[in-house]
Amino acid sequence: MQKILRLIIVLSVGIAMMFGGRWYAYVALGDSPYDEVGIALNGYMPAPLRNWGCHKMQTRFVGQMPPHGCAGPDGRSWL
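The chain above was modelled as a monomer; its predicted structure follows.
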């Protein structure tokens, strides 16, 4: 029973690191704010992380339209 629990914990941490790392790479290092996988991962993040990611991308991609999930009510301004 203890081995199964340990396996589940290790797999959960590994999956969270994989998706979290991919999201961070999209937000902090991506070449474009319009990466489909990054947009989807950003949509699944909790609101504080999603807001941080949108603000980070806004400073990196000045003058570009915001991706889905980072757009304001008019669809053209950043959150």
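The chain is about 65% helix and 0% strand.
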